Amino acid sequence: MSRSGQRTASLAELAELVGGTVVGDDNVRVQRVAPIHLAGEQDITFVSNPKYVSALTATRASAVILRPDLEYAGNVPQIVTADPYLAFAKVLTFLNVNAPVSAGIVATAHVAETATIAEGVTVSAGCYVGDNVQIGKGSYLHPGVVLLDNVVVGADCLLYPGVVVREECRIGDRVILQPNAVIGSDGFGFAPDGEGYFKIPQVGIVVIEDDVEIGACSCVDRAAMGQTLIKKGTKIDNLVQIGHNVEVGQNTIMVSHTAIAGSTVIGNHCVFGGQSGAVGHIKIGDNVTVVARGGVSTSVDSHQYLAGFPIMPHKDWLKVSSSINKLPELRKEVNRLSKKIEELENRMKES
Amino acid sequence: MSRSGQRTASLAELAELVGGTVVGDDNVRVQRVAPIHLAGEQDITFVSNPKYVSALTATRASAVILRPDLEYAGNVPQIVTADPYLAFAKVLTFLNVNAPVSAGIVATAHVAETATIAEGVTVSAGCYVGDNVQIGKGSYLHPGVVLLDNVVVGADCLLYPGVVVREECRIGDRVILQPNAVIGSDGFGFAPDGEGYFKIPQVGIVVIEDDVEIGACSCVDRAAMGQTLIKKGTKIDNLVQIGHNVEVGQNTIMVSHTAIAGSTVIGNHCVFGGQSGAVGHIKIGDNVTVVARGGVSTSVDSHQYLAGFPIMPHKDWLKVSSSINKLPELRKEVNRLSKKIEELENRMKES
Amino acid sequence: MSRSGQRTASLAELAELVGGTVVGDDNVRVQRVAPIHLAGEQDITFVSNPKYVSALTATRASAVILRPDLEYAGNVPQIVTADPYLAFAKVLTFLNVNAPVSAGIVATAHVAETATIAEGVTVSAGCYVGDNVQIGKGSYLHPGVVLLDNVVVGADCLLYPGVVVREECRIGDRVILQPNAVIGSDGFGFAPDGEGYFKIPQVGIVVIEDDVEIGACSCVDRAAMGQTLIKKGTKIDNLVQIGHNVEVGQNTIMVSHTAIAGSTVIGNHCVFGGQSGAVGHIKIGDNVTVVARGGVSTSVDSHQYLAGFPIMPHKDWLKVSSSINKLPELRKEVNRLSKKIEELENRMKES
What gap in Å lies between CA B129 and CA B146, rounded to an integer? Predict the structure, then answer.
């Protein structure tokens, strides 16, 4: 693999890319994106937060991406757009061209004769592509990727070193699998058999739809029967566990160390914070946010913002969490009141 | 690797396999196991729960596995057995024949001349088998498995892609290691040495007994001295951490993201739920269940059902967890009572 | 790889190694380190804890490492030193010689022509070394290590099987990366874009300084821009997540399943217990200890000993954690007091 170098662009080109308009000289060319205080010649920077507008007077950037409502009277040429953060991401992508250049199928890779490899696919050294595997146009397998028999990988996927996709699993288009991610490991299912356990064969698969990203060392287990499903656009961080027969909706976010137990169904546009989790066999609606470390143990409706373990509305959790460290003094206070009441009762009896 | 296809079986054969009896035509042949509402021609389904018996009237399955005490008067041929779930697992295993067919030692694998490889072993492309490694009859190494020097692997093991077993470690018979599992990484031991730390060499090993399964990206650290031990029949899920010199008993279950710190000894038939943990240097008895997220920080006796952090009996945890979100109102109530008492005291003084 | 065998040493040699003095015959030779009750002929043991001194009367060890203030009158020859535990670690390291013997660059490894490999480096079977990679003197790559383009690895590093270091990242000298560790995976950054998310290219790198150790299946994400930094001497256990642009100070310890979110800065000599964590964009001072499961959600000053979630001083956490399971009875008590007060009020009205 060899990444092509950075390229330059004029503000006119970039404004078109992000759907913005240029204020100032649209022939100015930039080469890099940089934070406002580090930017220099040929750098473009961006401001989303009004409090950083004043910092622009001191910047040495060649251009800035700015929101239309931010008042700025300096001479740095601007690209004005409603969402400078998104524009920044798009400009950064454009300037860095980080798609690796295709290197074809390296001779030292193992590719089964029955595999179907489309145009422009890279299969690097040490990769293994099993029987009847299909890989779509432009996908890139870094060194040491293993695709077992009958796996289907779509177009323009990026599979980093050490990724394993087990037999029969299906990966959509433009999917990114970070290093050592595992797709299709056996679900965790055993039937008690006297003293021990009898393994329940996991004969289902994993289906990963388009535009999903799965983090390093994350694991998505294959279904017992049927499929484990990660829907379009969902982004999963490192070291996340997805149990068998789980269904994760579209455009959902899961941060590191999240664990979703078997057969749970999660909606669209959810967010799971770091070290959060959900038990098995529940249903979580759309637009549910579970803050870091939240643990969901019953089904929850859509449009909720939750935290804690046991799980509760986040606003309640804020109160609870500010009460927890006052628990010892609360106990003392209750003891004090108990004695007061006894005294009062005694005095009443006397009177 | 090439999995052989599914096969069919008569009810007579399957009844013998699971130790059940046939009610109806025992020549009926089935090919697949399917859930009751999805089953069709040539499928066998199973019912453990009385409430699903009525669903059998509508099923299109060719046969059903049933408990003897469940009353069912329909015409679907039955296999009657005391544990339909276990029978289901056995039938599914039989019909799917998921043991891969041996492919021998592939030329592109690295196998040391001093390694001893039994009959029927598969060593796939990209595997590394070090000096003096022994691999027992019928074991299957998927692509990219690494066994460092002096490792011993028993018979009929299944090692998935990316598994690493470090030097000297010993794996029993019928052990399954899911993709990217790591056996024998260094235990985490350092001696303070002025400003920094001096690494304590981890010169022990890991011993994994027969019929153990270790999940994807799970790590079992080698002992500082002596051995880390996972006993017969224990099943460990994905992303679990087992520290150095830990001993896990027989037929114990550990769900994803569990972490057991160094030198802790765990008994037989325990269950650790997801994201649970135990500190180091403690002893946990037999038949101890630690519910998801439970954190054990002192030794515990056998036959307990525990939850929470700090750990407590599960029945206490249910009460505690239903009290936690009422903590803010409890504080308010205590404040209210405090004022009331002050008022009462003042009135008493006046009177 | 072939480890050279164990060697023997005289007490005179070992005393010099650890900076101690010999009491008894300094020509006695030992070969192994063993715990006091297991030690036999040719073994050396050590005693740090006064309560084990008496056990020395029964030991069959050939020598013992002892603190100068421990009173011992037996005949076992001694090495007397202020820190027997550190001395034990040094003696164990010396006797085990666990540095693997260089095996050179194996023909079946993929090494780019543009890579620069110093003397005494081992590149094992199935490794991949990309364009312009530099590897320093004496470093050892076990089978299946992948270093993508422009990676720099220092001298005397030990990279275990399945380690992945992505493009541009920089590893110092004497760094140890346990199996399947991932350095330089993409940071988790996305900009909302209508219904879905637009990936923010992660164009920064990871810098790992000298004498760092990273555990099995741990992940250190590359920076969005700039660098994620792990400073000199820091030791990270298995399955730990370090987010993009995090900075971890020198000689800091992180136990298994710890997760540090993006852009957080951690000082020197910190300790993070197992399953602990820190949110993003905060600053944690020097010499901060976060006990197992502690969750840090705001910046904290140096020299603190913290626990719990929400985080609090450990001494407070001890009180809180001993109060949590008394919460249900506390609620009952408050109810009882409430009724008492009502009674008192009613009686007052009557009187």
Answer: 6
Asked whether A230 and A265 are in contact (CB, 8 A), the reply is no
Which class would CATH give B9-96?
alpha beta
> How many Å apart are CA C69 and CA C83, to the nearest integer?
11
Fold of C110-315: UDP N-Acetylglucosamine Acyltransferase; domain 1 (2.160.10)
Q: Which of the other chains make 3 or more beta carbon contacts under 8 angstroms with chain A?
A: B, C
DSSP codes, B256-288: TT-EE-TT-EE-SS-EE-TT-EE-SS-EE-SSE
Which residues does residue A228 pair with via DSSP β-bridges, in sequence order?
A206
Tell me the pLDDT band of B2, cut-offs 50, 70 and 90: very low
Which token pair is C122? 């081992």
Q: C-alpha A264: how far from its chain's center?
A: 18
Give me the pLDDT at residue C50, please. Answer: 86
Measure B298 CA to nearest chain C CA, in Å: 14
Quickly tell me which residue has 């008394």 as its tokens.
C326
Cα within 13 Å of Cα(C275), Cβ side: 28
Distance, in Å, from the CA atom of B73 to the CA atom of B75, rounded to the nearest integer, reads 7
Q: Where in chain C is the domain with CATH 2.160.10.10?
A: 110-315
| Angle, in degrees to the nearest 10, between helices A327-350 and A314-324 | 70
ipTM of model: 0.95
**Averaged over A289-309, what is the pLDDT?**
97
- Subunit partners of chain B (3 or more CB pairs within 8 A): A, C
Q: Which of A142, A244, A257, A269 is catalytic?
A: A244
The residues near B332 (Cβ < 8 Å, ≥ 6 apart) are none
Which one is catalytic: B244, B257, B269, B303?
Answer: B244
Q: Which of A94-98, B38-42, B339-343 has the lowest mean pLDDT?
A: A94-98
